[in-house]
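To: structure subgroup
Subject: Chain for Friday's discussion

All,

I'm putting the inputs and outputs inline so they're searchable in the archive.
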Amino acid sequence: MAKKTATGTRKAVAKKAAVKKQAGARKLGPKGMTFCTLAGRDGMTLGVRTDKGILDVAKAAALFRVKAPTTIHQVMEGADCAPLVKLVEKATSDARGKSVLLSEAKAKFGPAVPNPEKIICVGLNYRQHAAETGSAIPPVPLLFNKFNNALTGHRSTVKLPSKVDKQFDYEVELVIVIGKTARDVSEADALKYVFGYANGNDLSARGLQRATSQFMLGKIPDGFAPLGPWVVSADQIKDPNNLAIQTYVNGKVRQDLNTSDMIYDCRTIISYCSRHLTLKPGDIIYTGTPQGVILGYPKDKQKWLKAGDRVKTVVQHLGELEVTLA
């Protein structure tokens, strides 16, 4: 009996190792591509940025009779993406392609990743941000979460929950988009599991956030996780911890720093998260915000966000993300 148990244990360990190896070996999506999610009558569909506009993949696939993934989640989950390259080539070279190419100015964007299984956020992850709020450097990444109801897209309107709080704040953040199943990955290998990167805004209701020891309630109102407009494939971002990052409110700069000020860099965050739970394709991680938030101002200078404000976040190479508050 003991011999059979030992054999069974070895087989189980070998099977687990094989699954882990297979997950790590799966290739990520196509290189050199920038994706978005388009919001339309038919729901959320895949867009691909080209130098002639945004390719509406679903419409292009129907026009050119090419079977292709039509959501970003299908791309991240391993769909054959060769047809995407073919559709981009056809749409930008064929006269009929004009009907499936949208100008960025007229596109209606959904959240860049509309249906993640997990939205993980890292708090107090910039040295200067921790200092401005009078907080100690966290001994490990400080994690909290948002839910999918908080996701919204570029140029959307976010209704403030003014009945329960008045202290609304912005937080520009680099967002990691996971592209392969990751469990117990090393820091050295962590970036191999990244599909791409996006611009995010961790809008916050500070009164709710500080009402208890848990951040969550101040982070989960509807629309409090703007994301996009783009997901830029990881191969186009040489170093995620060397990107300029800014916030503008009504055209005036409020935050202006670099992701190099992170306490825990992207490799460390991914590795740390994967030691505690399984990261899956499409999971997103908001990696923290730099100094300049309203919470960090002296109390007599804290002018909280209000209805009518336009908040724009910018992350180098990832584009501009703007929402209007109501």
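Points worth raising on Friday:
The chain has seven helices and 18 strands.
The longest helix spans residues 2-25.

D.
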